Amino acid sequence: MSEDKNAEDLPLGWEVCESGDGSIFYYNRALEVSTSERPGRTHVERFVTAKPSTLRGNGTEPSNSNANSDEEESDEDFDDKPSSPKGDLLRRRLILSQARTASTKDVNGKEDVPERGMVGSGSQSMPNSPEMVDKKKQRSKSSLTKLLFKKKDKSDALERGLEDLDWEKDRLNEAEEWIKSEEAANREKKWDAPPKPEEIDAKSLTVLDIGCLTYGFNPEYGKGHKTEESNLALEEKSKHTNYFQTMFSSAEHHNFVGDDDILGPIVVSIQSNTALPPDQKNYNVIVRTKKGDERLVVPRLPTLDSPEACIKYLRNNTNSLQTVRFSRVVEPKAHQDLVNSLLSYEKQLIQKNYKFGVLYVRDGQKEENEYFNNVEYSEGFREFLKVIADEIPLKGFTGFAGGLDCRNSTGLTSFHTTFENIQVMLHVSTLLPYFPKDLQQVERKRHLGNDVVMIIYKEGPSVAFDPRVVASQFNHVFAVVQPEGDKLRVCLANKFGVKPYTPNLPEPCLFEKNSYLKRFLLTKLINGERAAMYAPDFRGTLARTREVLLRSMVEKHNVPEQRSGLRRLSDAFKTQHVLNSGRKKSISSSGNRLTLSEGP
What we know:
Radius of gyration: 46 Å
CATH class of the largest domain: Alpha Beta
Number of strands: 21
Mean pLDDT: 77
């Protein structure tokens, strides 16, 4: 025997042999099979379908029609056939063995003894006998029935799943639409490009000095706007209502507290909206941080069947909350204590009443001290005050006083009004106490200098009002009113950081002395003060106030064992934090005891 150079390409188990006359043949030692044709992949596939012992069996070659048909079918299955008689015999034996194996098993893989007579004696049932046909029909019918029931169950489950998915999809679409509408409403607005002096009415330039543009003010001269009475609406109404008191405090809800290195202390309130139908219930959520309160509506999906699941949903879908560890306040007494703290928190931060300063300026005056030293005023100024408010005696006044003393120490009278359920008190400079020896009139500046919005009533067109003259960090919105015949011309100047607000000044910005002037001016000024809260001077102060109030609540109710959203703390753990000074602070815990130690 000598190996051919291509022997390495042969299937596993085959080798090249040389006969005495020099001819080449192929031999498989394991199967004891030889062939003159080079074995291909079909030989391998054929011989591995049965054990070698089966291939080498001594069965008798079948002579019935079934074997012939099997042989005919097998001829189509094999492209390459051994030419030797021994190879053909082994091939027929393999087919016969496969037929016997298939005939002795039913559809479930169990042996059926009567069917072994497919190639056996006549004493056994033949495959085409009536008994075998009935059995096959029964088995087929049973299998088909089981299959139909399985398919029906799967179809019902699929239909129910599709209905749930459709419902979840609708809820998620509603949530996405709500989020988009909120984002559109809260998207930072930009002021219109400032008009050029030649585009402004010359009379308006005598009311407000356009030079304030170079110092970051955004002036409003009414250029290019038309305002109708139907457009007079207060902005951010929902943010200035006692939402927690109305929707949460008297209803069943759940509170969670947490802390974060960036957001600081966080308090989350979750309440299920039971007013909606059962299949449309939502979670009303308030997320309180030092940046402000976010009011959310989370769809109550089948997977969100608990407040903890809702918290997890918020963490997974809000980037800023993904690392926050929350604790649920469960104990009834602690829960009620936190509710009282949240009610007080809401009451302190929501502004329901407003105070505006009113400064009287004579024609030709330019300096701040001149403004505050005016004692006498014109009849037109008094008429203007009566249009927008009502004169009231301060002594014994029980309404919103805006910091004025109701025992006559801050004057005898003032002007007050109620607009859209909002009380407005005016700090009128000429009605506040006057001290002749005080050139700066500190007592008057104490009230008007702490007002966010100031009305400037300016007599005459000689000198345009310049808001830079008034030295106050609190004054951010200046509404300048100047009489023009029987009407009043109004212009506004907004300090840097005040976001745009409505209603826009009409063109021309002239108003009759009537109720429309009151509605327009009070709406404009209330919206202006709300817009001023986004300015850096107020935003930082409000953030610090919120953080202090929330910190006290979180430190009191943040129980580690009740934290949700992350795994609970183990009974014994140790964490390390690097302080600003570079020292390490280690917190060790065992049971309910905490130990604090600082390293080098």
